[in-house]
Amino acid sequence: MSGLQLKGISKSFGGVRAVEPTDLTFRQGELTALLGPSGCGKTTLLRMIAGLEVPSTGAILLSGRSITELPAHRRKFGMVFQSFALFPHLTVRDNVAYSLTISGVARGEAAGRANELLDLVQLGGFGDRRIGELSGGQRQRVAIARALAQEPDVFLLDEPMSALDAKLREEMQVELRLLQQRLGITTIVVTHDQREAMTMADSIVVMSNGRVEQMGAPQDIYHRPENAFVADFIGKANFFDGIVRSEGIDVGGALLTASAEFLKGSPVRVAIRPERACLDNEPGPNRIAAEVTFVRDLGPVREYHLKTGFGPVIVEYALGEGDLGLKTGDPCEVRLPPDALHVFPAEPPAMAAE
Ligand code: ATP
């Protein structure tokens, strides 16, 4: 089997379980993003894949063969770190050629290969500069070229955009994605930025507390979140706590019709994306009395903040979608289409501290 597989990989540091036993498959030639909040174990997982951290349990397989015991320098993986970790005293070309020259490639040949890679990352002509003479985006391209010098089997990047400003970060995301597709190299990117993950990835692995919450294509993760954590972490969502009754879900102020199968009496969390909630005159189930408490015009979208009998709801309309133009203080009815409602089992209450 091609690609990279993790089987029961976990990592504990003393008493801290950083990564729970995890099974994952990274498909050959695809870009996968490891996404999650700070401390959820993304970097630890990446470092185990890179061979920089020894797993507490489990195996790592590349094209079906175990590399679990292989030291990092024998894995033929390219890495780009948050800090880029370039050598400031070397020229751009020598930075890129470094790994080739230390592995015995003749200087001239290594320099020629470095020049090709610099062309690839649009830095042809910058080879003689010092690192200090480059912008943040240019340094990042050097780090990428350097990591690609050994023609790695797998390309690993840990928060590669975090040192860049927002605009440059977006440009570099597109650039990196196009380069990765052109080279067809299996790539894993650690990020805590969902836009970055959605821009670049074929597949997103959402993590929390050392666990994989969901893995899937960006659109699947967004439209079909498997639990409340994913619905909350990816995109925006309104949440209501409720109890399943025979007539619908009682959210303490309204009875919602939803297509979900739960035992009667079960506590659930109901979620709906702001762009799926409606302020319109269409008939249908789940029309609920509300009042506009705030209107926020964000340019491409307008947000209506509403007060209802079961808590606040935000409704979002894209520019040109033709909303009703309601104002703060207006009474209205919000419609929550049943097929737009995600229903999850409620989290069990946290154990009381002893
Ligand atoms: P961030 O986005 O903040 O970098 P992360 O998702 O990459 O976070 P990790 O760096 O993998 O998270 O850390 C996961 C957990 O393991 C955290 O609780 C962290 O404190 C702990 N941890 C990581 N490395 C070590 C270490 N060397 N020794 C002890 N604990 C560690």
Question: Would you mind describing this structure in some detail?
Answer:
The chain has 354 residues and is of the alpha+beta class. The protein has two domains: 4-228, P-loop containing nucleotide triphosphate hydrolases (Rossmann fold, 3-Layer(aba) Sandwich), CATH 3.40.50; 239-345, OB fold (Dihydrolipoamide Acetyltransferase, E2P), CATH 2.40.50.140. Helices cover 24% and strands 33% of the residues. It is built from eight helices and 19 strands. The strands form four sheets. The protein has a six-stranded mixed β-sheet, sandwiched between helices. β4 (57-62) and β5 form a beta hairpin. α2 packs across α3 and α3 (107-120) crosses α4 (136-148). It binds adenosine-5'-triphosphate. Adenosine-5'-triphosphate binds at residues 13, 16, 18, 36, 38-44, 192.
